[in-house]
Please model this.
Amino acid sequence: MSEEHKRALSQSQAEPAQLTQVYANSVNFTLGAFDAFLDFALRTPEEQNPKPLVRVHMSIQHAWVMAKIIDRLFAAFRQQGGKFTIPEQVLNELGLLEEYREDMGG
Model:
């Protein structure tokens, strides 16, 4: 077992109050043939390319399953009347404007 795996395993057994919490408003995804990396950062208007605060590394299978589960959670949220807004400029930059309109019903 690698040192990274041992460290992750010991952290997974920690009490929730002992876990490190990080707020991020930016994420960069990198997918390889077998792995996925999610680099979370705090982006400010002054810093357009922030350094990652934390990197989450997982198998590509785990990333795929996680994405599907998140999609289901948002679908349930919307079915229960949940809504949120995202500035159009941001949606355009990400190429998500049409998907957002479809998801939010407008």
User: Anything to note?
Assistant: The helical segments are 3-12, 60-79, 88-94, 97-103. The chain has a mean pLDDT of 89.
